[in-house]
């Protein structure tokens, strides 16, 4: 379902959830905010890919369990969306709260993770944060990420592709050259670097290489 006529200055949102009643309720809540506009809905991976490609949203609100029926449906879709549309921010909105799921969602490219019983104010704040290219986690999912970062070495936190990006970065390659070596766009390289910096808690390319070396990624 497509809801047209969003204004250019609004945060454009696509809802991906297999329960129509839930989507209707969320849309009703979000559209009370003048800067938020739901431009599309989907209940399956296929529908979501089509709607996102057509509507170019700022943020995708994504449930992890879609109509196929497994927790991994949403994770797989998250990875596809962030790979094909790195400019789109994926915010997981789900009933599932499990450390492994939170961490994997981040690894697959999600910028945020909130549980469905979150209050309206925090949900709206999270959407706006993701739209600004920032991370957004409720207190429980944030705790899961912290526990994972403490418990696991960096090489298990970074994806295989991210580790390759770090390796090429350490050799002094530019974003353009890294993209050429990995057969991905320069925009996608920037997306991976942003995730790497977030996961390693650093803010510069030099710090990425230093931290990756210290933690055994290189």
TrEMBL record:
Residue span, Response regulatory domain: 12-131
Residues of the signal peptide: none
A GO molecular-function annotation: DNA binding
Phosphoprotein as UniProt keyword: yes
GO BP, one annotated term: regulation of DNA-templated transcription
Keyword field: DNA-binding, Phosphoprotein
Superkingdom in the source lineage: Bacteria
Modified residues (4-aspartylphosphate): 63
Keyword ATP-binding in record: no
PANTHER family reported in the protein's UniProt record: TWO-COMPONENT RESPONSE REGULATOR
Protein name: DNA-binding response regulator, NarL/FixJ family, contains REC and HTH domains
Organism: Kibdelosporangium aridum
């Amino acid at each position: 379902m497509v809801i047209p006529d969003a204004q250019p200055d609004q945060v454009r949102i696509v809802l991906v959830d297999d329960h129509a009643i839930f989507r209707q309720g969320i849309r009703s809540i979000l559209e009370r905010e003048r800067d938020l506009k739901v431009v599309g809905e989907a209940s399956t991976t296929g529908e979501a890919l089509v709607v996102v490609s057509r509507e170019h949203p700022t943020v995708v609100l994504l449930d992890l369990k879609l109509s196929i029926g497994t927790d991994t449906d949403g994770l797989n879709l998250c990875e596809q969306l962030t790979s094909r549309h790195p400019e789109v921010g994926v915010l997981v909105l789900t009933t599932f709260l499990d450390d492994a799921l939170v961490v994997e969602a981040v690894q697959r490219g999600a910028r945020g993770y909130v549980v469905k019983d979150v209050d309206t104010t925090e949900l709206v704040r999270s959407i706006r944060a993701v739209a600004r290219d920032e991370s957004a986690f409720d207190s429980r999912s944030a705790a899961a990420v912290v526990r994972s970062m403490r418990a696991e070495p960096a090489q298990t936190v970074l994806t295989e592709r991210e580790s390759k990006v770090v390796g090429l970065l350490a050799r002094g390659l530019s974003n353009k050259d890294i993209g050429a070596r990995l057969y991905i766009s320069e925009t996608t390289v920037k997306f991976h670097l942003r995730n790497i910096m977030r996961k390693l808690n650093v803010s510069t390319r030099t710090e990425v290489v230093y931290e990756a070396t210290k933690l055994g990624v290189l």
